[in-house]
Design brief:
The chain has 364 residues and is an alpha+beta fold. 36% of the residues lie in helices and 22% in strands. The protein is built from 13 helices and twelve strands. It has helices at 13-21, 47-50, 60-66, 77-92, 120-135, 147-156, 170-176, 187-195, 201-205, 209-216, 219-226, 257-276, 310-321, and strands at residues 5-10, 30-33, 42-45, 71-73, 98-102, 105-109, 139-144, 162-164, 243-256, 284-291, 296-302, 330-343. A five-stranded mixed sheet has the order 5-6-1-7-8. Helix 4 packs antiparallel against helix 5 (120-135) and helix 10 (209-216) packs across helix 11. The chain is globular and about 70 Å long. This is DNA polymerase IV.
């Protein structure tokens, strides 16, 4: 059976919510994050700000330089979560196969939908109309036979767009794509592909599996498949949480133990708050440190009983931090970020995705 997959992505979600709720921000370059001259990062940028090159995860200081006229606002995550729940409930009226990737993005399998709408395109149109009606926000959507084509299709017509890739057009569509548009191909991989003469999906498809594995490792097999429009990943309704974390990027680099411990205590308290809202009895605590030169280090400790209180997180985090201290109570190199996360012993505790729930999120 040919699957009918939707990818739906809210347009500049955080920024659009702020512009909806505060009319004075509409039509103006808006940055959610800040303050502008801080070490914090951009959570989201309105399309007016994006015209100046402002992007999510960019340092706020850089965003301010690119767009001096930008308005910086503090994120309101409780509001964003409430709206996300409304959107998810709309999805569930059409199908139970909803895989939420974040507050503002999801895959839906509508091969068989609850309303028995025969065409996936019509389902996408209906969902987008419902979102606009109930939230006064816009969403872009892509329709394809798998996750890969649906995701790429969504990105082609943002904001407020709908792109449909019919089954019979899938291979031609993928062949025509710039490989830079393929999800998961970053700057480093793209540069390597260009050096090998690979610029389009067709170029990628013309390379053998052996060639791609030799040059790109395990990812080569994935590139071999998607260049042919093949993606067998199912839409997973209930994602299994592997970790829960909190982190903070400091206004200025910290070197003194007392300053770092003060920040660590706040992070531990935030982690307890987040844990109290989730059921996640994990036994491994990981300390994440990012130094001033952006070098990343982690240290982990697995306990026999899952920790659950901020004091436990702080005490263990302090022990792990002491590995980086020198005799005078300072660290070997100034630190720009600290994070704590909980995970299960069998999971990869050094995966940066564990810290997706940061105090100052780097995506949005």
């Amino acid at each position: 059976m040919v699957r009918k997959i939707l990818h739906i992505d809210m347009d500049a979600f955080y920024a659009s919510v702020e512009q909806r709720d505060f009319p004075q921000y509409r039509g103006k370059p808006l940055v959610v994050g800040g303050p502008p001259n801080s070490r914090g990062v951009v959570c989201a940028a309105s399309y007016e700000a994006r015209k100046f090159g402002v992007r999510s995860a960019m340092p706020c200081s850089q965003a301010s330089r690119l767009c001096p006229e930008a308005i910086f606002v503090t994120p309101r995550f409780s509001v964003y979560r409430e709206i996300s729940n409304v959107i998810r409930n709309i999805f569930l009226e059409y199908t139970d196969y909803v895989e939420m990737l974040s507050l503002d993005e999801a895959f839906l399998d509508v091969t068989e939908n609850k309303l028995e709408i025969p065409y996936a395109t019509e389902v996408a149109k209906s969902i987008r109309a419902r979102i606009r009606q109930e939230t006064e926000l816009t969403a872009s959507a892509g329709v394809g036979i798998n996750k890969f084509t649906a995701k790429v299709a969504t990105d082609l017509k943002k904001p407020d767009g709908l792109t449909v890739i019919r089954p019979e057009d899938t291979e031609t569509f993928v062949a025509s794509l710039d490989v830079g548009l393929f999800p998961g191909i970053g700057k480093v991989t793209l540069k390597k592909m260009h050096a090998l003469g690979i610029y389009t999906g067709a170029d990628l498809r013309n390379r053998s599996a052996e060639f791609l594995v030799r040059n790109f490792g395990k990812a080569g097999r994935w590139y071999y498949s998607i260049s042919r429009g093949i993606d067998t990943r199912p839409v997973i309704p209930h994602r299994i949480r592997k970790s829960l974390g909190a982190e903070s990027t400091f206004e200025s680099d910290l070197s003194r133990e007392e300053d770092l411990l003060s920040e660590l205590r706040e992070i531990a308290e935030e982690l307890e708050r987040r844990l109290s809202a989730k059921s996640f009895p994990a036994r491994t605590l990981t300390l994440k440190i990012k130094f001033s030169d952006f070098t990343l280090k982690t240290r982990s400790r697995t306990l026999s009983i899952p920790p659950s209180r901020s004091k436990e997180f702080f005490d263990l985090g302090k022990e792990l931090l002491e590995e980086f201290l020198i005799g005078d109570g300072a660290v070997v190199s100034p630190i720009r970020l600290l994070g704590l996360s909980l995970s299960h012993p069998e999971s990869d505790s050094q995966n940066e995705e564990e810290f997706a729930g940061s105090l100052f999120p780097e995506t949005g």
